[in-house]
């Protein structure tokens, strides 16, 4: 393999595995909330209170 191909392969491997490690660490540090968002019950983001259906 040429040196350019090796560098590109190393860059691609670092991007893919680095993203996996980063996302895993991020989810460990800041886990997803188990409770629903407060606007989910009434959908105020789509229908303001004055237009309740």
UniProtKB/TrEMBL annotation:
Assigned keywords, A-Z: Membrane, Transmembrane, Transmembrane helix
Residues that span the membrane, as ranges: 6-29
InterPro entries: MaAIMP_sms
UniProt name for this protein: Methionine/alanine import family NSS transporter small subunit
Species of origin: Propioniciclava soli
């Amino acid at each position: 393999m040429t040196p350019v191909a090796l560098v590109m392969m190393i860059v691609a491997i670092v991007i893919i595995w680095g993203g996996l490690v980063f996302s895993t660490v991020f989810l460990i540090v800041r886990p997803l909330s188990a409770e629903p968002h407060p606007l989910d019950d009434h959908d105020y983001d789509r229908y303001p209170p004055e237009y309740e259906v």
